[in-house]
Amino acid sequence: MHDLVLEGVGKSYGSVLAVTDVDLHIPAGKLVCFLGPSGCGKTTLLRLIAGLEQPSRGRLLLDGADISGLPPDRRGFGMVFQSLALFDHLTVGDNIAYALRIRGEGKDSQRRRAEELLEMVRLPGVADRHVSQLSGGQRQRVAIARALAVDPKLFLLDEPLSALDAKLREAMQIELRLLQQRLAVTTILVTHDQREAMTMADLIVVMGDHRVQQVGAPSQIYREPANTFVADFIGTSNLLPVTVEAGAVQFGDRRITVAAIPDGLRRGQPATLLVRPEELHVLPTPDAAGEALPNRLPATVTFVRDVGGTVEVHVDCQGHALIAESLRKDAAPVAPGDAVTVDLPREACRVLAA
Amino acid sequence: MSLQTRPRGLLQHLPMAGPALVLTVFFLVPFGIMVAYSFFHRVEGGFYEPAFELANYARFLTPLFLGVLGFSLTVCALAAVLCTAAAVPFTWFLARLSPRGQTAWLVFILSVLSLSEVIIGFAWSTLLSRSAGISNLFVALGLIETPQAYSPSFLALLLGMCFITFPYTVLVLYPSVTRLDPEVTEAARTLGASPLRTFFTVVVPSLRQAVLATLVLVFVFTLGVYVLPQLLGEPQHWTLSVFITDQAIYQSNIPFAAAVAVFLMLVSLALIGLTLLAGGGRKP
């Protein structure tokens, strides 16, 4: 098992910044997801790791040794490309055995290994077929097998499942994750699909605006987002502009008590309040005038989305749109136009720098 | 259901009438006349009379003719291989330039097409001459002692043939090369192949169809080249095209010239067929 450390890595094309200030530790045997919107620099970062691009700044250390200057063919990594990049002029078996052929291994051992790998990706008996005769999902498996042919030190995947239809993609996510765990190969997966990242990753690196925004386990990224970018990007978020008070925040004329105020935020400073939809409660009675209980806000229902298992209630709260999500059995009996009260539980309120 | 369906009935085939007519009048009819002439009887003194005899074809079996035929096929095949070998890497690098650079090069290459075979022949014979050629430059650089004439020679002829066909080969290869997915070569690199290894194990095989088309194109094109051998080659380097002209115009033997022309066409068609068969054989 191998681990990778990135130290102050950055890449610019002329005056255009692709990615900057990346300090990361990719732990051995883990699956790390680079997650972010398109154009955030996640693919560039993967290409830097693969050696397909040279970093403008910083170093890459594989097991402590600097590999920054090493060309891709001498890194010994396996990569699955977004386009899959299969060799159309070769058979499935020859595609998978390409790395072995380059190493000068014999035909027999190439053949054996190709069949072994096809077995592993659950696609046996197609070694002699032509790549063009395979379906999208099968091509996917061939690309994975090819990248794993020579036991790569790092297994790199650039949005490998984006071409598959939703159902197959979900199934492949689980299968790929199980395969990665079985092989215990250090893996980096680039994706813009947070569900995919949550499903597969040990560690998620949220990227945005050409830099790393937060590194953490999937649940941590969701529950404790480091900033408004992560809060907004991961899952659905209710974000309200507030002012910091002692042990609470002020939203308009309402006081909202919170569990913790992060270090660095002082009284009177503007901040953002985050409440996840599943933690927000809609009470089907109008907010009692003058009562002004803490953590209660008056609102008007604008839309109800009933998707069967869960119900989403969209409300307007002093010009801010909020969403409350609950199981159908717990849903408040409300309809658009109803005046309601929104309850923001103290434990669910998280304050972020504005 | 596909949008493109085969035309049905006489009316739908009507748009084809124009091209078909042109093809018939300006290609098939003259070709038919030539085929007919190839069986005519030659009368000494530059005339011929209608007949059906195989005497013209029988003359192929002379050592002189077989020698010229063998030389022509060899030099054209060699030109095809050399020109393609130069054009594939060239086009590969061209496709990696900025769009502006690519346009500049393509315009330059297209402008070479506007030069006639005669101008190219004279230009190269001057460039390779002793008095005004590049050997003077080599002398100035101290590479050789005295200026030399590099033309006429076999290599000069080969060079001229490659020069004249190079733009065509680039234009034939360019679309396929630009369509190559850059990730495919990157995949080869991550799998351990050096840039050179990647080029020969991934790029060239992916371009196989285009490379074959280029080989055939150069071969057929250079078979028809007729001025260059006379300007850049010595008499023993004259190809079948020169031989045909010589027979038709200077020896006034139209029937034999026609027979050679028909034969040349059959031979090149056969070679093209063989090449395509060899190339297509490995496809599923």
Automatic annotation (TrEMBL), chain A:
<dbReference type="GO" id="GO:0140359">
    <property type="term" value="F:ABC-type transporter activity"/>
</dbReference>
<dbReference type="InterPro" id="IPR013611">
    <property type="entry name" value="Transp-assoc_OB_typ2"/>
</dbReference>
<dbReference type="InterPro" id="IPR008995">
    <property type="entry name" value="Mo/tungstate-bd_C_term_dom"/>
</dbReference>
<dbReference type="InterPro" id="IPR012340">
    <property type="entry name" value="NA-bd_OB-fold"/>
</dbReference>
<dbReference type="GO" id="GO:0016887">
    <property type="term" value="F:ATP hydrolysis activity"/>
</dbReference>
<dbReference type="Pfam" id="PF08402">
    <property type="entry name" value="TOBE_2"/>
</dbReference>
<dbReference type="InterPro" id="IPR017871">
    <property type="entry name" value="ABC_transporter-like_CS"/>
</dbReference>
<feature type="domain" description="ABC transporter">
    <location>
        <begin position="4"/>
        <end position="234"/>
    </location>
</feature>
<protein>
    <submittedName>
        <fullName>Putative spermidine/putrescine transport system ATP-binding protein</fullName>
    </submittedName>
</protein>
<keyword id="KW-0547">Nucleotide-binding</keyword>
<dbReference type="InterPro" id="IPR027417">
    <property type="entry name" value="P-loop_NTPase"/>
</dbReference>
<keyword id="KW-0067">ATP-binding</keyword>
<dbReference type="InterPro" id="IPR050093">
    <property type="entry name" value="ABC_SmlMolc_Importer"/>
</dbReference>
<dbReference type="InterPro" id="IPR003439">
    <property type="entry name" value="ABC_transporter-like_ATP-bd"/>
</dbReference>
<dbReference type="Pfam" id="PF00005">
    <property type="entry name" value="ABC_tran"/>
</dbReference>
<dbReference type="GO" id="GO:0043190">
    <property type="term" value="C:ATP-binding cassette (ABC) transporter complex"/>
</dbReference>
<comment type="similarity">
    <text>Belongs to the ABC transporter superfamily.</text>
</comment>
<keyword id="KW-0813">Transport</keyword>
<dbReference type="InterPro" id="IPR003593">
    <property type="entry name" value="AAA+_ATPase"/>
</dbReference>
<dbReference type="GO" id="GO:0005524">
    <property type="term" value="F:ATP binding"/>
</dbReference>
TrEMBL record, chain B:
<feature type="transmembrane region" description="Helical">
    <location>
        <begin position="149"/>
        <end position="174"/>
    </location>
</feature>
<feature type="transmembrane region" description="Helical">
    <location>
        <begin position="105"/>
        <end position="129"/>
    </location>
</feature>
<feature type="transmembrane region" description="Helical">
    <location>
        <begin position="256"/>
        <end position="278"/>
    </location>
</feature>
<protein>
    <submittedName>
        <fullName>Putative spermidine/putrescine transport system permease protein</fullName>
    </submittedName>
</protein>
<dbReference type="InterPro" id="IPR000515">
    <property type="entry name" value="MetI-like"/>
</dbReference>
<comment type="similarity">
    <text>Belongs to the binding-protein-dependent transport system permease family. CysTW subfamily.</text>
</comment>
<feature type="domain" description="ABC transmembrane type-1">
    <location>
        <begin position="69"/>
        <end position="275"/>
    </location>
</feature>
<keyword id="KW-0472">Membrane</keyword>
<dbReference type="GO" id="GO:0005886">
    <property type="term" value="C:plasma membrane"/>
</dbReference>
<feature type="transmembrane region" description="Helical">
    <location>
        <begin position="210"/>
        <end position="228"/>
    </location>
</feature>
<feature type="transmembrane region" description="Helical">
    <location>
        <begin position="60"/>
        <end position="93"/>
    </location>
</feature>
<dbReference type="Pfam" id="PF00528">
    <property type="entry name" value="BPD_transp_1"/>
</dbReference>
<keyword id="KW-1003">Cell membrane</keyword>
<dbReference type="GO" id="GO:0055085">
    <property type="term" value="P:transmembrane transport"/>
</dbReference>
<keyword id="KW-1133">Transmembrane helix</keyword>
<dbReference type="InterPro" id="IPR035906">
    <property type="entry name" value="MetI-like_sf"/>
</dbReference>
<keyword id="KW-0813">Transport</keyword>
<keyword id="KW-0812">Transmembrane</keyword>
<feature type="transmembrane region" description="Helical">
    <location>
        <begin position="20"/>
        <end position="40"/>
    </location>
</feature>
